[in-house]
Amino acid sequence: METEDTQGCAGAVACGQGIASEYPGDLLCRAFRGAGERRGFERTEAEFVAFKELKVRWQRSYRWAEFKVSDYLADAPAPVLEGMADSLFARIAGEDDSLSYPKAMTDWITAPSFAESKQPVYLRRSRNLTRSPVGDKRSLSESLERLEGLGLAEADPSVHLSWTRESSARKVGHCSVLMKVVSISNALDSDMIPEYVLDFCLYHELCHIAMGFDPSLKRHGERFAEMESRYPRKADAEEWLKRLCMHL
Length: 248
Ligand SMILES: [Zn+2]
Prior knowledge:
Elements: E1 2-5, H1 24-38, E2 43-49, E3 55-60, E4 64-70, H2 78-92, H3 103-110, H4 112-125, H5 140-149, E5 160-163, E6 173-176, E7 181-184, H6 195-211, H7 222-228, H8 234-243
Parallel strand pairs: 1-3, 2-4, 5-7
Antiparallel strand pairs: 3-4, 6-7
Helix pairs in contact: 1-2, 2-3, 5-6, 6-7, 6-8
C-alpha cells in the first residue's frame, strides 16, 4: 500500500457522528477517531475513496487530520481498520518511520480472498490494460507456457495477465502483487523482438508475484535477483531491453 501525505486536497466529508447505520464508512471513522483521540487530535475525518491503487492519503495540521482511504478496505473488519489507523497516526506523530503494516492488515490484504474479490474492480479501474493475454502478435499465455516448459513458472488461475493498450514511457512490465495482476507493455507485442525477451519480462513480473507482498518496497533485493537469475537468457534479454531503451 502506498501512503501519501498530501497538501491542499479537497476536504473529506465529515464523519456522520451518531448516525446509526451500517455504512462501512462508520467503522472507518470510529477507527480513525479513536486513534486520533488517543494522540490528542481534536478532529479526525476519514472516508473511503475509489483509488485505483490500494493507498491512503492524508493531510493534517497540528490538531486535526483527514484521511482518504482506498475503498478496497471498505469491507475490512474493525481490527484491520483500527490497526491501520493506529499505525498511520504513529507514523504521522513520528513514532514509527518503518513501512511495516500491522499484522492484522497484512494478513487481510494478502489472503487469497482479497485478490479474488478486488481484482475485478482493480482491472476496471486500470484503463490502460486490454484485460486480455492475447495481443496482436504475441500471447502472454503462450509466453507463460514456455516459462512452465522451462520449469520457471506454474500456471496460476488467480493471476491475471494483460497487455497494456499504450506503451507509456519505457517501462515494459508492471505487476500488482496484492491484486495479482501482471501487465506487459504492448511495445513487446511485436515479432521484431525475440520471444525470449518477452518471456524474460513476464518472468520478472511473475517473480514479484512469487515473492509475495513486501511492504518495505525493496522490490529488487537479493532474494529477487537470485530468483530472476534462473532465467537462462537473462543477460541477452537485458541487452535487448537496453538497446530498446526499455527497462523493467
Ligand atoms: Zn521489478
